[in-house]
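Hi R.,

Here's the chain you asked about this morning:
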Amino acid sequence: MTDRLNEGNTGIASADDGAGAIGNGDGERDDDGSPRARAGTHSIDAIGVNDPPPTERSHERDAGVTPRPEPPASDCTVLVAIPAYDEATTISEIVAGAGEHADHVIVIDDGSDDDTATRATAAGATVVEHERNQGYGAALKTAFGVARRHRARHLVVLDGDGQHDPADVPRLVAAQRRTGAHVVIGSRFTDGAPSNAPLYRRIGLRTINALTNLSLGVVRASSRVSDTQSGFRAYDREAIETLATDRTIGDWMDASTDILYHAHHHSYTIEEVPIAVSYDVANASTQPPLSHGVVLVRNILKTIERERPLTALAVPGFGLTFGGVGFGYWALSNYLQSGTFPVGLALTAAFLMLVGIFACFTAIVLHALSTYFANTGIRRGQFR
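And the predicted structure, written out as tokens:
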């Protein structure tokens, strides 16, 4: 489901794009002037003041049933957030199931064209609606902002298409409480996790998992994240606070990987629990797996180049340089034995050595800049 949120325009709408706040059509505001979103007769405060506010609105309940009162911010222990895009056929069941294990359920309707928002509200959720489709990552950022505003102790994010079982919510929360982990991931590949994923999807996900762990510098098997693309995750309050203000998280499918990079930079602990994921659901994905994989791999490779230039450039650079030396030795040997200068071998040797030396030099410069930025507290995206 998560890649279904990635159609349409990009980015969280700024204040210049419209109301710039969570609120219903009447533009009601709190005493301090901040806008609010409403579900029935109960309001939910806008996202954090430091977050870029999306232009959103909330639906009044059409069925005439009053939604469950939202708990006070200080008492919001478990907040479930469900990013959704055209999930009218499944959202009611997911909201009802999640509501059994949470203090409050938030549905981020990412510009749906169907009745997702109306049905989610009728099922008891507070709906925060993006006026246009902005992407899975944008929906997650809205969820982090709402959770931060309400100081939720646990934010659990799951898909709204039926692939994730809401009954697993307490398992993630219990694991977080037991281990104290900042992030708990519901994994399809850890021990004890049944899955009916197609073979091509398992191969693709395992490849992406390996590349993601490599980009994180994780070598030991015990420290690897087995399911880097899982959308079923639980975040504690500390993770919520930092994620809500991180501008480097993308608006699209790369957000799942960006969050892992965020956790790595903040030295957060990550735990995984086995979950069952059903792929036998209608319209589970509208983005072709191949293009989805290409986007993720491209993002991972860019991160490796940026975060680990010595690994990404210096190692291949040294290899090319030594390869050039080898071709040069071969060219010299042929010249001494035959008296004819091998132009092809000589040009190959020169090309490999030049490219290798340039790659090594670039890696050293990028590593120096990365070290400087790390020591001065400057991170990627801070100047955006």
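The chain has two domains: 2-306, 308-376.

Let me know if you need anything else.
M.
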